[in-house]
Amino acid sequence: MWPRWLSRRSEPEVAPVPAASAETVRAETLVRRLEWTVLRRLDGLLQGDHRTLMRGAGLDLTDLREYQLHDDVRHIDWNVTARLQQPHVRVFTEDREMAAWFLMDLSPSVDFGSGTRRKSEVALSFVTVLGRLIGRHGNRVGAVLFGAGGPGGVDAVLPARGGRSHLLQIVQKVLAAVASPARDAAGGTQLSELLRVAGHVVRQRSTVFVVSDFISEPGWEAGLGALARRHDVVAVRLFDPLEIELPDAGLLPVRDAETGEQLWIDTSDRAFRQRFARIAAQREAELREGLARCGVDTLELSTDDDLAEAFTRFLDLRRRRLRRRAAPSAAGVPA
Length: 335
Prior knowledge:
- By secondary structure, the chain is an alpha/beta fold.
- The chain has 2 domains: 50-96 and 314-335, no CATH class; 99-304, Rossmann fold.
- Helix content is 39%, strand content 19%.
- It is built from 9 helices and 10 strands.
- The chain has helices at 22-42, 50-53, 78-84, 119-135, 164-178, 191-201, 220-230, 270-294, 307-326; strands at residues 61-66, 88-92, 99-105, 140-146, 154-161, 207-212, 232-239, 251-255, 262-266, 297-302.
- The strands form 3 sheets. Strands 5-4-3-6-7-10 form a 6-stranded mixed β-sheet, sandwiched between helices.
- The longest helix has 25 residues, at 270-294.
- The protein is globular.
């Protein structure tokens, strides 16, 4: 029973809590799901693998070894090189704290998927899991989003910061960019522009992940090579099995996501399927050669890949890279 002198209106008013946006809810749901389904499976594999994920530069000299292709020429020890008549580079103690950057191609071609997942979904899952792995060691994560219709091609630049909330912000931005109607605009992807912007944004030496299907106008190799000379770069190449080999499915309408061109193809024509497979194989070979010339590690990620297995391949790739760099160590070479 309320006293007469006390009205219910005298209760302190509580300001309404604004409802979370759809992107916020989806981002939180995605991160939690991946933490349970992928991160838990990877925990046993990643013990002590911080150095494999993030390779720093450091300042303390620890060793000398013979020069290898794509080594930074600024680390050549010219005194030792002159004495031994063989180029040698200095090896430094690696930094434990590094920044990781994700350069994400969100152009319309990345929205393709012949199965249950699209390339954009695979890319976002990969970045989310890797961002959580890197962030758990206290490192910072940043992102440049490109190709979803933003001015100049760039949709968002999120500076490198630490913490789970910052990763959630990156995931939200990606979800919003993927849902943008501007992505339907016709026009070829200029991946070179993303790499040019990244060269200005990523100042401090970092580990840079270029997440793209590399379906782009030509000329991106120069930008990727320039980025690899300053940073530790990994190319995460997205693809769908249907982009490599066509099934016998009869007459199908297809649309070029980059240009908007539409046409009908007869997949029951065996000669057509063979030509398609031959052209696709040639493009695959040219792409791999281009990435190799740039001196970057490459992880190929299919829309039908198991994400935990993909990370296992990624770790094996990084371990081989580290062993390859350490193998020709010139122990006992005078400094």
